[in-house]
Amino acid sequence: MVSLTETQMDAEKIDPELRPVLNSTPLFSDPELSLLEIRAKVEALPVPPYKHVAGVVSKDFLIPGADKVYVPVRVYMPGDASNANDLPALLWIHGGGFFLGDIDGNDALCEKMVHKCNCVVVSVGYRRVPEHPFPAPLDDCIVALNWLAANNDLNIDKNRVAVGGASAGGCLAAALALHARDNSGPKIAYQVLMIPVTDDRHQTPSSKAFHDARIWCRDISLRAWAAYLENIEGEPPAYAAPARAADLSGLPPAFVSVEDQDLLRDEGIEYAQRLMQAGVLTELHVYPGTFHGSFGAVPKASTSKRHIADMLTSLRKALHPSG
Question: What is the pTM of this model?
Answer without folding.
Answer: 0.96
